Amino acid sequence: MPDPADTITPPLLAGVELGGTKVVVLRAQGRKIVDRVMIATTGPDETLGHVATQLRRWQTDTPFAALGIASFGPLRLDRAAADFGHMLPTPKPGWTGADIYDTIAGALPCPAMIDTDVNGAALAEWRWGAGQEGDRPSDCLCYLTIGTGLGGGFALNGAAIHGAMHPELGHILIRRATGDDFAGACPFHGDCIEGLVSGPALARRFGVSGDRIDPRDPRWDHVAHDIAQLVGIVLLTTAARQVLIGGGVGMGRADLLDLVRAKLVAQLSGYLPFVTPQSVGQIVRTPALGEQAGPLGAVALALDALARG
């Protein structure tokens, strides 16, 4: 069956990428983004109100066929739950309990779908990016974002992974590097992986904002160790073929990614035969779609909503 994004007259779609610092509200013709509005993420009432107003304005002007919402989490994604589409307890002040789905999509006369931003990005990469670069589509792809927080999503045979919740890779506890005494920055768990390597965690660990950290600082070795631990857990538990690392930390330092790859190979000690010094560069890499993986994740969700009807 042809991808709806590749038809001769692609449908007009709307998408929302709701991040911790900014929101991207967009319209797309198929997968081509044709309009984009940026909104600062403040409190939920103000932020979601601006998003809903923009979408209603577009819907009145030229109706779109479906809406995709790719939001930071954690989210309730069980449609049978009373709080479907709500934000679950989050370190983001004021956002716990926010009704994301109904506030944005409730009044719109079109199908809509909500998922985490990282699940959306994983679907976009599977559909149009790294997942299509081999001889056949990747059957299991992981997308990690390391920035304001740390999140991870999966595309398994073209579908996002859901169960009791959605993947919450940011709060995994890893084996710490010898000699690393940084206490971590997560308000829930201290030294979970998000509390060790997210942007705010790096600022606390190094004492300066991320863009001012000396790339030669030896403490980067601990950061690379920690990220490699997470990637190893993903590969060992899910057999993912690719782990794409995006976000400001993930895409901002190529030297860090090289160090992560070397640490990963050493930590696995040859146990996974497909992870070698020669192959690791294709397994652990930046997203093929770059910074567009997030916005296109909302488009991918809109296409899935349209297909579901």
Describe the structure.
- This is fructokinase.
- It comes from Sphingobium rhizovicinum.
- It catalyses: D-fructose + ATP = D-fructose 6-phosphate + ADP + H(+).
- InterPro entries: ATPase_NBD, Carb_Metab_Reg_Kinase/Isom, ROK, ROK_cs.
- Its EC number is 2.7.1.4.
- The chain has 309 residues and is an alpha/beta fold.
- The protein folds into two domains: 4-116, ATPase, nucleotide binding domain (Nucleotidyltransferase, domain 5), CATH 3.30.420; 130-288, ATPase, nucleotide binding domain (Nucleotidyltransferase, domain 5, 2-Layer Sandwich), CATH 3.30.420.40.
- It contains ten helices and ten strands.
- It has helices at 44-61, 100-105, 117-128, 193-197, 199-206, 220-238, 247-252, 254-268, 280-283, 293-308; strands spanning 12-18, 22-29, 32-40, 66-71, 112-116, 140-146, 150-156, 159-160, 242-246, 284-285.
- Strands 3-2-1-4-5 form a five-stranded mixed β-sheet.
- A hairpin with a 3-residue loop joins β6 (140-146) and β7 (150-156).
- α3 (117-128) crosses α10 (293-308) and α6 (220-238) crosses α8.
- The longest helix is centred in the C-terminal third of the chain and has 19 residues, at 220-238.
- The chain is globular, with a radius of gyration of 19 Å.
- The chain starts with 11 loop residues before the first strand and ends with a helix.
